[in-house]
Specification:
By secondary structure, the protein is α+β, with helices and mostly antiparallel strands. It contains eleven helices and nine strands. The strands form two sheets. Strands 1-2-6-7-8 form a five-stranded antiparallel beta sheet. A four-stranded antiparallel beta sheet has the order 3-5-4-9.
């Protein structure tokens, strides 16, 4: 029989067969079945967190600078270890120094962490953990003070404007939440008016006064605000552990005297903190809730109110008068004050350096 030949190019529109080299077929087949190799960052965050746990803490800064993924993993590791240490110390001895230090750090940074500055917290706490290498989560008071001042400065830089509504809101919420942690804290009075409210809180045992401050500076200094939180942090640690102390703190443009009295006498020092809030009803309600309700009952808002406000704080303490301080001191947290510098102060600023804590027997 005759053989029939079938050609692909016999019909119009059909493309002629093109002979493909065998080497090209192998390359095409390899490309179709090729999968990119796994990267370290492709592992689940739980495994990466476990791996980072075996690395010396001195190298964690380098890990954080490698990529955003590894920085997030390091944040998760630091927060997990921190929360674990806090929970363990609460179970072992709630009155221990370690527990007091961890509780104070949590309280002083909680508002900022919940507002999106968790990574800043983890990055700032690493130097403190390295400096107390043998027991990372039991740092000394000076190390905690340095960490807090550094953390507040970093947050202010990220916000951009230290006197912005957002910066002042986070600061005042942190300040007000401190008083709920003191064992002998009393909410004396609360007055609510349209666009205005006044709240008075009394602390028994802790006391503070200001020996000297630069008069030409504004009352809304970022440095002064950070100093007040540091002082309250040390007072709170002493209150939790039941420790009595007296301290003179000499810092740039200010000298403070403060302490804690653990005696049960009738003449135990008392310090009054009077908050006067000028703002919308929403702002006043937020601050009153923060001071009046228990910390566990405080409702964290997904978005903080953007209404403008001003807070005046008057601190009254008779105990400070024994050291030559005035009976009361006034601080304003508002968007209107601007810092003023004199030539003499600028010269003194250049000559001054650091902060000094002195124990007074």
């Amino acid at each position: 029989m005759p053989k029939f030949k079938c050609t692909s190019g016999s019909n119009k529109g059909d493309e002629p067969n093109v002979k493909i080299p065998r080497r090209s077929l192998k390359v095409r087949h390899r490309e179709e079945n090729w999968n990119p190799p796994l990267n370290l960052c492709d592992l689940p965050i739980e495994l990466l967190e476990k791996i980072i746990g075996y690395i010396n803490i001195w190298h964690h800064n380098r890990i954080r600078g490698t990529s955003k993924r590894l920085r997030d993993v390091n944040d998760a590791f630091v927060m997990h270890e921190y929360k674990k240490a806090l929970h363990k110390s609460m179970l072992v001895n709630p009155k221990s120094y370690e527990c007091a230090a961890l509780q104070t750090i949590e309280l002083a940074t909680e508002v900022y962490v919940k507002s999106g500055y968790e990574s800043t917290f983890c990055g700032c706490i690493l130097p403190m953990l390295r400096s107390s290498y043998k027991d990372p989560f039991c740092p000394q008071i000076l190390q905690i003070n340095t960490f807090l001042l550094h953390f507040y400065d970093m947050v202010d830089e990220l916000i951009g404007d230290r006197r912005s509504q957002h910066a002042r809101l986070l600061y005042n919420l942190t300040l007000m939440r401190f008083f709920k942690k003191f064992g002998k804290s009393t909410h004396i009075s609360s007055t609510a008016m349209p666009l205005h409210c006044r709240i008075v809180v009394e602390l028994k045992g802790p006391w503070l006064g200001m020996l000297w401050t630069s008069k030409t500076r504004s009352r809304d200094q970022p440095e002064k605000r950070g100093n007040l939180l540091v002082i309250l942090s040390e007072m709170l640690m002493a209150s939790i552990t039941g420790k009595a102390f007296k301290r003179v703190w000499e810092c740039l443009n200010e000298i403070y005297v403060f302490g804690n009295d653990t005696s049960n006498s009738k003449r135990v020092p008392k310090t009054l903190f009077t908050f006067t809030v000028h703002g919308s009803k929403k702002i006043c309600s937020l601050f009153r809730t923060c001071l009046e309700e228990e910390p566990s009952d405080f409702v964290w808002l997904s978005k903080w109110p953007r209404d403008q406000f001003t807070v005046n704080l008057d601190i009254t303490c008779k105990e400070a008068m024994k050291w030559g301080c005035s009976k009361s001191q006034h601080m304003e947290f508002g968007p209107f004050a601007e810092p003023l510098f004199s030539e003499e102060e600028e010269f003194m600023d250049d000559c001054s350096s650091g902060k000094t804590l002195l124990d007074v027997e």
